[in-house]
């Protein structure tokens, strides 16, 4: 019998199908928080591999692809730590998430999830999340953000990384509140036909779908156990310079971008949309101290200013040209160093 849960978001439900979670078994109350397995100080995250189509089969489960910052929430007897994908402690930057973790009523746990800020339609908004943190390098705390938890890798003295996803999900569903509007929410499993998932996601202007193999353990890295299928492509690229503009406010006409190609950099085009005059002013102020006379990509231009490969930008685009340049690129924001964003590799 399927036990209905209140859906966390009004997404992907045009057919009026309710998002459902699978039945769960309560944890045995006679099992105390025994430290059978030492709690790790950090777990390298499992990453999703990009694929063009949604995999079909009963061994896959599907979730919304959230657009935010990957976080691990470490709940310990006397403290809570919020750890970024790069291993940095950002507990002070996400106080509402940390407070909600304390209220979960568990002695020890490690939750895996994504911190997001939702727009008025319930979609994750990466730019809004960055603004809530004061921009790249900002010092603000984000009180508007929520964590959508999608995995549980440690619980009450038990290392769950060797346990299959289906069991980890049952335990997570038992742990996260069902009210659907707190600072920690469950990333709901989407109960729609796999063939229709991407179309529904794109219709709702979501970034895409995550597919996860139910029977696999939690393995760090991009193993193929988790897959991401995107409506609009969004990747991280290195800023290697900018084109000066005498008319654009902020003095930047476009950013010059590069991806990895083995141990080298390869120019993938420029982006001149998606940033405001204020963004451009901030970018120029941040990039100018990084100026160099030795560009890392073979480019020439009278108005080009080259910089050391230091800043990573998140770029939304619609595809690739025949010579491997971005089509219809739009700037979304700078990635934080602590977010440990991987620059797009053209060899993959």
A few lines on this structure:
With 348 residues, this protein is α+β, with helices and mostly antiparallel strands. The chain has five helices and 18 strands. It folds into two domains: 49-230, 2-Layer Sandwich (D-amino Acid Aminotransferase, Chain A, domain 1); 233-339, OB fold (Dihydrolipoamide Acetyltransferase, E2P) (Beta Barrel).
What does this structure look like?
InterPro entries: ATP-dep_DNA_ligase (IPR050191), DNA_ligase_ATP-dep_C (IPR012309), DNA_ligase_ATP-dep_cent (IPR012310), LigD_ligase_dom (IPR014146), NA-bd_OB-fold (IPR012340). It catalyses: ATP + (deoxyribonucleotide)n-3'-hydroxyl + 5'-phospho-(deoxyribonucleotide)m = (deoxyribonucleotide)n+m + AMP + diphosphate. Keywords: Ligase. By secondary structure, this protein is α+β, with helices and mostly antiparallel strands. The chain folds into 2 domains: 49-230, DNA ligase/mRNA capping enzyme (D-amino Acid Aminotransferase, Chain A, domain 1, 2-Layer Sandwich), CATH 3.30.470; 233-339, OB fold (Dihydrolipoamide Acetyltransferase, E2P) (Beta Barrel). The protein is 14% helix and 30% strand. The chain has helices at 95-102, 126-132, 165-175, 194-203, 277-287, and strands at residues 49-50, 60-64, 69-76, 79-84, 109-116, 146-155, 158-159, 184-186, 208-213, 226-230, 233-244, 252-261, 264-271, 304-306, 312-317, 319-320, 326-327, 330-334. Strands 3, 4, 5, 6, 7 and 8 form a 6-stranded mixed beta sheet that branches. Strands 11, 12, 13, 14, 15 and 18 form a 6-stranded antiparallel beta sheet that branches. It starts with 48 loop residues before the first strand and ends in a 14-residue tail after the last strand.
């Amino acid at each position: 019998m399927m036990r209905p849960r209140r859906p966390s978001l009004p997404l992907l439900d045009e057919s009026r199908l309710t998002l459902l979670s699978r039945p769960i078994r309560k944890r045995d109350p006679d099992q105390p928080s025994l430290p059978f397995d030492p709690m790790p100080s950090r777990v390298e995250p499992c990453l999703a591999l990009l694929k063009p189509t949604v995999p079909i089969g009963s061994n896959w489960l599907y979730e919304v692809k959230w657009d935010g910052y990957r976080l691990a929430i470490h709940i310990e007897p006397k403290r809570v730590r919020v750890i970024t994908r790069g291993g940095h402690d950002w507990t002070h930057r996400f106080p509402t998430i940390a407070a909600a973790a304390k209220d979960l009523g568990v002695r020890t746990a490690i939750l895996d999830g994504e911190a997001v800020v939702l727009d008025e339609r319930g979609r994750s908004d990466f730019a809004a999340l960055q603004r809530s943190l004061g921009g790249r390098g900002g010092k603000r705390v984000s009180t508007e953000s929520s964590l959508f938890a999608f995995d549980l890798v440690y619980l009450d003295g038990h290392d769950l990384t060797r346990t299959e996803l289906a069991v980890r999900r049952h335990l997570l569903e038992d742990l996260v509140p069902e009210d659907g509007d707190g600072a920690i929410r469950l990333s709901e499993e989407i109960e729609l036909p796999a063939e229709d998932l991407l179309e529904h996601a794109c219709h709702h202007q979501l970034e895409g779908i995550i597919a996860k193999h139910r029977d696999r353990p939690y393995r760090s890295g991009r193993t193929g156990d988790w897959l991401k299928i995107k409506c609009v492509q969004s990747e991280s690229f290195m800023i290697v310079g900018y084109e000066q503009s005498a008319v654009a406010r902020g003095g930047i006409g476009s950013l010059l971008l590069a991806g990895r190609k083995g141990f080298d950099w390869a120019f993938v085009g420029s982006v001149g949309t998606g940033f405001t005059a204020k963004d451009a002013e901030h970018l120029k102020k941040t990039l100018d101290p990084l100026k160099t006379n030795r560009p890392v990509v073979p480019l020439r231009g009278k108005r080009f200013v080259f910089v050391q490969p230091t800043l990573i930008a998140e770029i939304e685009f619609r595809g690739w040209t025949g010579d491997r340049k971005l089509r219809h690129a739009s700037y979304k924001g700078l990635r934080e160093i602590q977010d440990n964003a991987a620059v797009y590799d053209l060899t993959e």
